[in-house]
Amino acid sequence: xxxxxxxxxxxxxxxxxxxxxxxxMAILEDVFRAALKRKYxxxxxxxxxxxxxxxxxxxxxxxxxVNDGEVEEPNEEISLSDARKIEPDFEVGEDVSEEVKxxxxxxxxILALRQNLISKIHExxxxxxxxxxxxxEGEIYSAEVHHIRHNAVILLDDDGNEIxxxxxxxxxxxxxxxxxxxxxxxxxxxxxGNKPTIIMSRTAPEFLVKLFxxxxxxxxxxxxxxxxxxxxxxxKAKVAVDSYDDRIDPVGACVGMKGSRIHGIVRELGNENIxxxxxxxxxxxxxxxxxxxxxxxxxxxKEAIEGEKPRVDVFLMPDQVSKAIGKxxxxxxxxxxxxxxxxxVQREGIADEDVELTEFSDEIEAWVIAEFKNIGLDTAxxxxxxxxxDLVKRTDxxxxxxxxxxxxxxxxxxx
Length: 415
Fold this sequence. Notes:
A hairpin with a 3-residue loop joins strand 10 (224-232) and strand 11 (236-243). The chain has helices at 2-17, 21-40, 80-86, 102-105, 107-134, 205-215, 217-220, 250-255, 263-268, 283-290, 318-325, 330-339, 366-374, 380-384, 388-394, 399-414, and strands at residues 46-51, 56-66, 77-79, 95-100, 140-148, 152-156, 162-166, 181-192, 195-201, 224-232, 236-243, 273-278, 298-301, 311-316, 342-347. It has a five-stranded mixed beta barrel with strand order 5-6-7-9-8. The N and C termini lie far apart (107 Å). Helix content is 40%, strand content 25%. It is found in: Cytoplasm.
């Protein structure tokens, strides 16, 4: 029987997709009702009985008996003579239930029905995957490298679900091989054309937080809280931690003896340098800690301008400035992200004869001055105090440009 073969194929879907019996029956009835509606215009007067486990399917159409020649709605009414062909003792006004065979729907309708079923099964499957991974957003997840593309790595988990790790969410030093296990957080899950797109990230600050929770029991148990995180993925991160228990040293507990506890996190993140500092609500103390390893002499927190980050003038001794700024300005950028302040480094005790770089705007282009300011050099002597080779490494300026600038600045003091 064709209906048995068809139902058996439906049972295969059930086995393949692990759909529970109740859900499968609901999907099957929905699909058959759609087919009936297409053929008869309405499915309201049909009863569908399905037993997918046995391959049983029955469709019954219910109609009211009317006098011959008075049939106005063929789908809902049946003439007395036609009714008596089914049962000879039917009378006008009685209900007639007549079985509809699958072949009555037509071969094309059956093929369309099967395609519709496949679509519904996939839709159900995709909806379940979407819900599953939506609940996992922000959580660490592992999957194997399946395919490496130019702009993304495609991963597969144990259930065969596809997860995308875009280039923008990879740490710069990441290198992947097919079959290798990769960890990251589920950053987002979206339905695109009824298919879930699962995005993994290894660069999000939340990934670092979750690694702390996995590797450090006190963080997992809530004895230590991670208050703020700032990251330049694969390069450097600053993590502010706190504990409500005075007996626990949050920094020491996170770092461990000789860095033993944090080592696994650093390795997972491509040797990302991680500074762990004590959090405090005292902004001045927090800013000073965020700028470590530099030692801050003093600071002035300025009144915030609407629409801009509040600014702070941070004063340091000349030998501490480069520590505060860090290689390529990384340290001060992270400190700014962590504290929420725009930090302006100032040298403590600038000599009276020193001159602000902006005073040379007629001779030095603004973008060149900006390059020096980006690494905390805002006076003539601060630029002259450093070697040309050091300035080449720390800025995007050519050696020739730096030599010309230093020449202009030197002439100012010689005059």
